[in-house]
Design goal:
- By secondary structure, the protein is α+β, with helices and mostly antiparallel strands.
- The protein contains three helices and six strands, in the order E-E-E-H-E-E-H-H-E.
- The protein has helices at about 50-70, 110-125, 125-130; strands at about 10-15, 20-25, 30, 80-90, 95-105, 135-140.
- It is globular and about 45 Å long.
- The mean pLDDT is about 95.
Length: about 140
C-alpha cells in the first residue's frame, strides 16, 4: 500500500521515557516521565501513551467530521473523544498497547452514532495504523 503524503510531522526525543520530546518547529516541547506503574518515578511530565492518546482522540474527531461531510450524520459541536491507551507485556513477548475510545456524540441516536463511528474507523489514520496490531474498542456515550 502506498500513501500520497500531503504533510509530514517531525519530532524527536532524547533520553527515552525520562527525557524530552519536541517538535521540529518548537511548537511542542514536553518533559517525559516514566509512570510509576512501569517502574518509573512518575511525577511531572508526560509519557508516549498520553501523547498517542491525544493524537488518536483529535484525529478520530477529524475522521468523524470527514464522514459527516460526505453525507454522514452531523457531528455535534460538543463532540468529544477520550482515548485510554494502556501498555503492558504481551503474551507473545515484548510490550503492546490496548486502546479504548470513549466517544460522546450528544444528540445523535444510537444507530446514527454507531454508523458514524464505524465509518470513521475505516478512514482514521490511527485506526488504520493500529488495525490488526492493537486491540481498539469504542464506547459510545
Amino acid at each position: 500500500m502506498t500513501v500520497d503524503v500531503k504533510y509530514t510531522a517531525s519530532a524527536s526525543a532524547t533520553g527515552g521515557r525520562d527525557g524530552r520530546a519536541k517538535t521540529d518547529d518548537g511548537s511542542l516541547d514536553v518533559k517525559l516521565t516514566t509512570p510509576k506503574e512501569l517502574g518509573g518515578a512518575g511525577g511531572a511530565g508526560n509519557n508516549p501513551e498520553q501523547l498517542f492518546a491525544m493524537g488518536y482522540s483529535a484525529c478520530f474527531i477529524g475522521a468523524m467530521k470527514f464522514v459527516s461531510s460526505q453525507g454522514g450524520p452531523k457531528v455535534p459541536d460538543d463532540v468529544s473523544v477520550t482515548a485510554e491507551v494502556g501498555i503492558g507485556p504481551r503474551d507473545a513477548g515484548g510490550f503492546g498497547l490496548a486502546v479504548t475510545l470513549n466517544i460522546s456524540l450528544p444528540g445523535l441516536d444510537k444507530a446514527e452514532a454507531e454508523k458514524l463511528v464505524e465509518e470513521a474507523h475505516k478512514i482514521c489514520p490511527y485506526s488504520n495504523a493500529t488495525r490488526g496490531n492493537v486491540d481498539v474498542s469504542s464506547v459510545i456515550a
